[in-house]
Write a structure and sequence with these properties.
The structure holds 2 protein chains of 2 kinds. Chain A has strands spanning 3-5, 10-14, 19-21, 24-26, 32-38, 44-50, 56-58, 64-68, 73-78, 87-94, 102-104, 108-113. By secondary structure, chain A is mainly β. In chain A, strands 2, 5, 6, 10, 11 and 12 form a 6-stranded mixed sheet that branches. Classes of the chains: A mainly beta, B mainly beta.
Chain lengths: 114, 110
């Protein structure tokens, strides 16, 4: 069955430390891949997306993600976390073609400690 | 900037009531979506629409219906609200696969 998995429900990092959030997908072909962020009480905002080409994708707020076909992964990274990065992060996928239905993972909640 | 506006941030309704959640987007997007968000379950797609009067069921359509009479407006309808429909509801519109979300409606059914 097609799925997108975020294995970490909750992650705590210190301010200034590096961050990696994991995302794995299970689809017959490489889907379109996304990371969204949801700040408390807010809707979701797109951080970055991968359609094709360079497997290292740069996004907003200093985030990047790397697509690894062999591992069916699309992990989100940031070299130095700021307190304002505390939020919930969602990986999402969409099949190529069709009506652009987007499927979300269950989310990873990031806590940043001083 | 793209704006997706949901008519209410918070709603409290009684079991059995008919509930309308309204969503309006201002960017002439073809696609619009309704998701519900529950802790530990992420976002689950209820319905989406790829054109006026067109709709497709998502992953959890039971108990819901939708209406899209105009391109900019997509309504979610709970025909007879039940307590298990207490949730956060998020509307989104998209173009070129980039989705833009409203701020959500937190619905409580008592």
């Amino acid at each position: 069955a097609q799925s997108v998995t975020q294995p970490d429900i909750h992650i705590t990092v210190s301010e200034g430390a590096s961050l990696e959030l994991r995302c794995n997908y299970s689809y017959g072909a490489t889907p379109y891949l996304f990371w969204y962020v949801q700040s408390p009480g807010q809707g979701l905002q797109l951080l970055l997306k991968y359609f094709s080409g360079d497997t290292l994708v740069q996004g907003i707020k200093g985030f990047e993600a790397e697509f690894k076909r062999s591992q069916s992964s699309f992990n989100l990274r940031k070299p130095s976390v700021h307190w304002s990065d505390a939020a919930e992060y969602f990986c999402a996928v969409a099949l190529r073609g069709g009506y652009q239905k987007v499927t979300f993972g269950t989310g990873t909640k990031l806590q940043v400690i001083p | 900037d793209v704006k997706v506006t949901q008519s209410s941030r918070y709603l409290v309704k009684r079991t059995g009531e008919k509930v309308f959640l309204e969503c309006v987007q201002d960017m002439d997007h073809e696609n619009m979506f309704w998701y519900r968000q529950d802790p530990g379950l992420g976002l689950r797609l209820i319905y989406f629409s790829y054109d006026v009067k067109m709709k497709e069921k998502g992953d959890i359509p039971e108990g819901y219906s939708v209406s899209r009479e105009k391109k900019e407006r997509f309504s979610l309808i709970l025909e007879s609200a039940s307590t298990n429909q207490t949730s956060m509801y998020l509307c989104a519109s998209s173009a070129a696969l980039e989705a833009f979300f409203g701020q959500g409606t937190r619905l409580t059914v008592v």
